[in-house]
Amino acid sequence: MLTPFHIAVPVRDINEAREFYGSKMGFSEGRSSDKWIDYNMFGHQFVVHLDETLGKDGSVGQIRNAVDGHGVPVPHCGVVLQMQDWQALADRMREIIDDFIIEPYIRFEGEAGEQGTMFFTDPSGNALEFKGFKNIEKELFAT
């Protein structure tokens, strides 16, 4: 059994993060305070922490590296899903994300490690990637 990860990211506004991760993305909220919120991101503990140095209009900086003809933001985090769950998430995100960094598509099509992928940011600029595989066990680390 895979154990859940824990990751914490900075956000510029707790209420904005609550609207995005809770209301829009549909992640259930766990413990919280006026400075942080725990979310259940597909069984993993994803935590947003208020970073007052960002200011209301600030965002987290990032660089981009070329992968499969796209500029992949670094750093980024997300979850690997079964393909049908990824497709359902991609359909839902198309309804709420105005500007994808990388629109949902199939990367490495017909090659080892073929995967659905999409990248977008939360309102604070944290880059998120969600991947989908037809067979995670065989394809996740395929070379």
UniProtKB/TrEMBL annotation:
Name of the protein: Glyoxalase
Species of origin: Kiloniella litopenaei
SUPFAM superfamilies noted in UniProt: Glyoxalase/Bleomycin resistance protein/Dihydroxybiphenyl dioxygenase
Which PROSITE patterns did the record assign? VOC (PS51819)
VOC domain location, by residue?
Answer: 3-133
The organism that produces this protein has a lineage beginning with:
Bacteria, Pseudomonadati, Pseudomonadota, Alphaproteobacteria, Rhodospirillales
Highest taxon of source: Bacteria
